Amino acid sequence: MSSQPTPATLPRQAFAPSVSRTLATAARVLRQLRHDPRSIALMLLVPCVMLFLLRFVFDGSPGTFDSIGASLLGIFPLITMFLVTSIATLRERTSGTLERLLAMPLGKADLIAGYALAFGLVAVIQSLLATGLALWGLGLDIVGSPWLLLLVALLDALLGTALGLFVSAFAASEFQAVQFMPAVIFPQLLLCGLFAPRDTMQPVLEAISDVLPMSYAVDAMSEVLRHPDVTGDFVRDVLVVAVCALVVLALGAATLRRRTA
């Protein structure tokens, strides 16, 4: 009797992640990360180092650090998680690990969810370190709750993870994965409102910025910086970032390939 899965089981394996398989995948990724100190340093320490340097770049103007430090607190984790996740996922495919895993009772959704969970746990630690350093080590002055700042930083890191998982499906090498950063991250960085208010941009650029998730991440950080309570705009911004992360994860599961072309 054939042991091939029936058509009825294929959609469930592909699109309905199993808790046990997801946890097993996450545990495997974390074990691999434990033996990769450079990736750990990139994810956990680089955002802190960047914030530290930024603080003393504006040493003569603490108000400038306060105005942009909160925004960069969300941008730095997004960038580092994007870079590490895209390269790590691509490495799974080029080494043949992904093909062997998907030959087992492991669906694409299980794999993507496991990676998201593993890197999400790293993102929690990363966000705690960066937020703690900014607030209590570097004196970042905000009006709102530090917990709200931490929430946005965590969502930004998870968004970076989702984007990294998604773009890894379109890269044939680690070098190409890195090349996606100028295409995916830099336009968002320029149009997110960090360098100039979005409503002062050319109408076309403002319209583009309105559909980029990093714009809402920066806006959410600005809300925490200026308002002591949770505002309607903050809730909207947080929901947009969270929904974007979920949508990109779903796209990553749908476009995941067993091997590079």
Summarize the structure.
InterPro entries: ABC-2_transporter_component, ABC2_TM, ABC2_TM_bact-type, ABC_2_transport. The protein is mainly α.
General description of the model:
The chain has 261 residues and is mostly helical. The protein is built from 13 helices and no strands. The chain has helices at residues 9-15, 19-34, 37-44, 46-57, 62-94, 97-102, 108-137, 146-167, 174-184, 186-191, 203-209, 213-226, 232-255. The longest helix is centred in the N-terminal third of the chain and has 33 residues, at 62-94. It is globular, with a radius of gyration of 19 Å. It is a multi-pass membrane protein. Its main location: membrane. InterPro entries: ABC-2_transporter_component (IPR051449), ABC2_TM (IPR013525), ABC2_TM_bact-type (IPR047817), ABC_2_transport (IPR000412). Belongs to the ABC-2 integral membrane protein family.
